[in-house]
Amino acid sequence: MAFFRFLFNLLWFLLGGVFMGLAWWLAALLCFVSLIGIPWGRACFVIGIFTFFPFGKQAVSRKSMTGQSDIGTGTLGLIGNILWFLVLGIWLAIGHIASALACFVTIIGIPFGIQHLKLALIALAPIGQMVVTNHEAESGRYIR
After folding, report:
1. pTM for the whole thing?
2. What is the Cα–Cα distance from 141 to 58, expressed in whole angstroms?
């Protein structure tokens, strides 16, 4: 199983995943221009790394994994996600959807297209989410 995860991540990275990962990092740099955007920038860097190598990991609600509310999972997180969506989220989601459509052209690209659609959903509302391994997500708890 680990071999296939490695193989899919390698193919993903070489066949275009690097471009969307860099797009997330560019969004992070744009967020860091202002002090107000730092929380979004941090989330973009984490999701950018996830975008480089997404197989074997997933994004889940931080509240469901830790069992605790924080500033990103409450009302301020909702407001932050709305602002994010209006400024950068929609553009990253469009990029992932366009990449997914390109991947769906071939049968081999279908798993990559599905992954792009998952990342498009994350692009719409990244605040309050965390990236964990599939094992951590299945167990329902975050292991540090």
Report:
1. 0.87
2. 13
In tens, the pLDDT along 49-108 reads 999 999 999 998 888 777 777 777 778 888 989 999 999 999 999 999 999 999 999 998
Structure tokens, 82: 């709305």
Interatomic CA distance for residues 22 and 136, integer angstroms: 26
d(CA 31, CA 79): 16
* DSSP secondary structure string for all residues of 32-82: TTSSTTHHHHHHHHHHHHHHHS-TTEEEEEHHHHHS---TTTSHHHHHHHH
Query: For 129, which DSSP code?
Result: E
d(CA 144, CA 136): 10
Nearest Cα neighbor of 120 from 20, 22, 13, 37 is: 20
